[in-house]
Amino acid sequence: MKKIAILGSTGSIGTQALDVVRNLPEEFSVEVLAANSNVETFAAQVEEFRPRLAVLADEAAFKVLRQKKFSGVELAGGRQAFVDAATVDGVELVLTGMSGFAGLEPTLKAIACGKNIALANKETLVVAGELVTKSAEARGVKILPVDSEHGAFFQCLQGENPRAIEKLLLTASGGPFRGKTFDDLRNATVKEVLAHPTWNMGRKITVDSASLVNKGLEVIEAKFLYGVDYDQIQVVVHPQSIVHSMVEFVDGSVIAQLASTDMRLPIQYALTYPRRLPSPVKRLDFWQLNSLTFEPPDVETFRGLKFAYEAGKAGGTLPCTFNAANEVAVREFLRGRIKFLDIYDVIDNAMWRRPVTQNPTLEDLIAEDSETRRLSEKFIEEEII
Questions:
Q1: Domain termination residue (choose one: 128, 145, 162)
Q2: pLDDT of residue 383
Q3: Is pTM, for the whole model, over 0.85?
């Protein structure tokens, strides 16, 4: 049995990862569960899977959790306990299912301990791609992508020479606002933004999908996962979300990965790699697929993708700036304090006002994240609200 740790177990990725474990109980031993603050869901997971260690990062939530009794389970609370959960002896694979900058430190800690990573936390590579990939290479650690798009690239490249890649064709659904104009989006509501047409995801990533920031994050992630230049990464809008991504090779051949829209498939492939095992994922019926369409993204209306390319090409701390500003903006949008299009202004302001440090250390990145958040919060208070 493969011994695994699931960080972010109560979120969208974490809960679906546990569905995979339920379907393949003979394959996995859940050694560690860690989450932020959802006590009731987390307690039910601990009761069912009986990990060796269960951690809640939120101190108040942990006080509630420790009143419950779980025989044979060690309980821990606090931010440092969450980070340390990635380093538990005996764990072979750590699934990083949390969102945001908070995933960077535990991922680096797990890599330092020689643990393979099933990476769902895309911000880790966006913020610190060079740092993370160099550390993984030095420790002989595999980074197995969990994103449906990066899982698709990973599968398309099995048995292929990475040097034969001509282009990575990164598909995007277009989100709920595909085809909408700038004027159409002026008064977009939270409910409208969260109404994704093909995927059921967490709130933050759903907002990022609507703004195309999520696709921008995936562009930066692809650069570090596959060692390509940004000019080799082309975003293609594919509203049916059946083709999860494609690789074009130097001879003109294109290999695509197709499947239904179910995140359990890329999660399972990352957890079971290099094996393929049966899954309950709905099969495609090619007699019923009437058409698959593709189109270019609208980067003038949905500026998040353009900002991501700019940040990625500049490198250094600028992707960290881009990510931190977006996290603040999305949080404030979901709280109803700013409008959807204000998200772009918050990112733009931060990217042009923050200096760029090349070859940043972890400490540089932590400082940049903190300062960008402070700057973005101030900008929202003084210029938007």
A1: 145
A2: 93
A3: yes
